[in-house]
Design a protein that fits this description.
Blueprint (H helix, E strand, L loop, with lengths): L8 E4 L4 H14 L5 E7 L7 H4 L5 H18 L6 E6 L2 H11 L4 E5 L5 H7 L2 H8 L3 E5 L6
Parallel strand pairs: 1-2, 1-4, 2-3, 4-5
């Protein structure tokens, strides 16, 4: 992969151990955390959720909370210079849209390794990213995979 351009590397994170690994790989591949763009995608709020109905929760408050947590997450994992983006929507779509907007060279994404009925019910964000990305995608296998 030495010829692969790595000036803008997108890393989706869900704060799991697998996404910590993806972040480390992305920083290593980019050679500098400032070339890494971290994206976290929140699921849309349901209009009938009690906190939404009572006005105690909004996308803006959720994004602010995630940004606070993510800032410390990036610091703890050696990526404090990375750009952080928090979005709301379908993860696969939002990740590829963001990568397109910043003209990313590479997306580094972890796979949770679901298979069978669990994968069918939960879907696969990594698969969606592979199908819709305009740039190269590196999918990292689960560390505890068989």
């Amino acid at each position: 992969m030495s010829n692969l351009k790595r000036d803008r590397v997108v890393v989706p994170v869900d704060f799991s151990e697998e996404s910590q690994n993806a972040l480390s790989v992305a920083v290593e591949m980019a050679g500098d955390a400032t070339k890494v763009h971290v994206v976290h995608v929140l699921p849309p709020l349901e209009a009938i959720s009690p906190a939404v109905v009572w006005g105690e929760l909004s996308d803006d408050t959720r994004k602010a909370s995630v940004k606070d947590y993510a800032t410390q997450f990036l610091l703890d994992h050696g990526a404090s210079g990375a750009t952080l983006e928090v979005r709301v929507g379908s993860p696969g779509h939002e990740i590829t849209t963001y990568a397109n907007e910043i003209e990313a060279d590479l997306i580094v994404i972890s796979s949770h390794g679901y298979h069978g009925i669990k994968r069918m019910l939960l879907g696969s964000v990594a698969e969606s990213v592979i199908r819709h990305a305009h740039c190269a995608v590196l999918v990292l296998r689960r560390q505890d995979a068989e």
